[in-house]
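Fill-in record for Aminotransferase.
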Amino acid sequence: MQLSKRIATLHDGGSDGWDVFYRARKMKAAGEPVIELTIGEHDIGTAPDILDAMHRSARSGHTGYAEVPGIPALRDKVAERTQARTGVATTRDNVVITAGGQAGLFATHLACCDPGDRALFIDPHYVTYPGTIRSGGAVPVAVQARPENGFQPLARDIEAVAGGARSLLINTPNNPAGVVYSRDTLNGIAGVVEAHDMWLISDEVYDSQVWRGDHLSPRALPGMEDRTLVIGSMSKSHAMTGSRLGWIIGPREAIAHFDDLSTNTNYGVAGFIQDAALYALNQGREAEDAVAAPFRRRRDKALNILAGQNAVKAVHPDGAMYVLLDIRATGLSGEGFANALLDARRIAVMPGESFGCAAAGHVRVAMTVADDLFCEALETLVAFAGELARDNMANAG
């Protein structure tokens, strides 16, 4: 039997971007001592008090069907958090709870685009973006944010491909680049989106991890509240990656339709997970800052390690839990370097090419192991890159 073209072409006939990660996991399963700096998985795990709240809720009987758009108290709390951080009036009618941010990405594209519509996204991008757009029946169109511009997307580049597009997906703070989009960048994006009557889908799952400057949600810009759909998640802010709880924030008319979509897909999120999320959000900003603190600390350590050498250059990490490294001096692609590092030093990082064309010649390092091990691994990576860069220069000479 033949499968649908939609599901058979999610990756357009290519890799899903996770090849090095899969190879590292196989090596670990075989007993090899691999240091994984690949995925955005906190080394601290979900806090015990959050797990206790989850357990209490499940034991008290909240294991049946939960309200599909999300329990009212949780939607109220997400709305309260959003309004406090953005200044935009937000109520539960602007919020639908989803099974993680990834489900939110799928739902927003399904809602914004009809089959065959063009859906824009910024490159570099999270690995799943093109496949998510295809899974909704739309056609993904990448807009490169170039290294020479600090990976800030330019309005003119978006404008060049915006004709007839239905949506634009952005991500700030950005994974993989660690870039926080500036107000000027977001104003430029908003201008193009308004001019072409597009939806803006804003993935803001790293909004609690900002190391320099401020995070600005484009929903807060003039004229953007009614055309912006914001993706949020408990995964990064509260180390609840496996709990699969996220949300979409948008105009109440759109949110009502997302309620219908949830009814016809996963039929809501487990009640005990929602109760745990509500408990976690009620702990306030200090709890989120505590989860973010190790990444701020490791980011500073990484910049110290990278200073004073030229083989590896960091894209200055202003947010998120990653450092994107330019390794083009080695003469290798990001994929070539990541595989060579894994083979020679048993350190796993993600190739920049996994995140699109703009990050080619880079690797993404997740700051997700204990400080000492992280510093040791990064120092080893830098030394390995230095050896390759010297060999590359010698061969070029």
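KEY FINDING: The first helix runs from residue 5 to 8.
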